[in-house]
Design brief:
This protein starts with a helix and ends in a 5-residue tail after the last strand. By secondary structure, it is an alpha/beta fold. The protein has helices at 2-18, 30-48, 57-86, 92-130, 135-151, 161-185, 191-202, 222-230, 233-238, 253-264, 277-288, 303-309, 329-335, and strands spanning 210-215, 241-248, 293-300, 321-326, 342-343. Strand 3 (293-300), helix 12 (303-309) and strand 4 (321-326) form a beta-alpha-beta unit. It contains 13 helices and five strands. It folds into two domains: 2-185, no CATH class; 191-343, P-loop containing nucleotide triphosphate hydrolases (Rossmann fold). A five-stranded parallel beta sheet has the order 2-3-4-1-5, with helices on both faces.
Amino acid sequence: MAYAAVTSLKGTLYLHFLQSQPRLSLQVKQEIVNSLHENLGFLLEILEKSEIAYNNSAMKDLEAEMRDVAFEAEARIEMELRSIYLAKGWTKRIRIKASLLRLRGILNEAVKQTDYLKKKLIKISAKQLAKGPSQGERITDVSLLGRMRQRGLLHGSTSSQPDLERENNITGSKFSKNASIKFGSRMVGCNEEFKTIMDQLTKQSAKQLQVVSIVGMGGIGKTTLTRKVYEDSSIISHFYMRAWVTVSQEHNLPQMLQCLLGCVSASSDEQSNNDDQGQLANRLRKHLKEQRYLIVMDDIWSSTAWDSVQRCFPNDNNGSRILLTSRLREVAEYASSDRRCKQLRGRE
């Protein structure tokens, strides 16, 4: 989930702020966006190379922090972008200005939070190396620390643990608490969509595998709504397995499969980078076989991406579901079981 969350946030930044012709010209300091994008790229590189030691509890906790920070940041950014896109009437200028001010604060918080995660990653890795881990772990840590040194990231990394904890209390707790409050209170106009999707996933009588599609423009809140569904307690209790993958415009099938495998398998053996696409696909299908599962495919851009992965999802007539989001109606309809999709629209 950390990989999916960080990838999704990085994609959102690129779409709205970093393209040569971004979706929206926002009055946000470019250096703030660049700093956050760079931090996310660093974290993503570590996750992609499976260099987090999954048998280490501190590293597991750190990955969970990465996931939470990225999810909360994207949810808040999408809420403000949604307000900007949908502002109209005589209050349009006032609303946009207020959203821009909040957006700058969110991006600043996210930079501080990801800076903290980088420092914590360096500190944990340094401790592992000092303790003399096993040969396999030693190679990983040396590789990781070597790249950090090359980037100059080890300078100033000798700060004490109380300093790191104090920084986390300032930036982390404020971030997660404020975001969770806003997440519940500012999903205005989405209650009907939420209930409809929940019914489609858990209350429909159809036992065969069903694909439920959500379509809407970037920044409208598709990922936020989908995450609210994904983390609902009734969803967690209804499905035996859940997995989330962010597809994005340039989909990478091996990464998609490894991300899904990481969600449904607790074994570190599943993190091998040597398997080909066929082996990864068969392994994923084996894990999902005879399980009632929910798969989220967030931000899918092409029918090709869907075709490349759909054979991995077995249909055991046990009520399994796939929840898919897209900016493109034709893609959402193509993948949907009934060739229809839920259009997510903004409301005042």
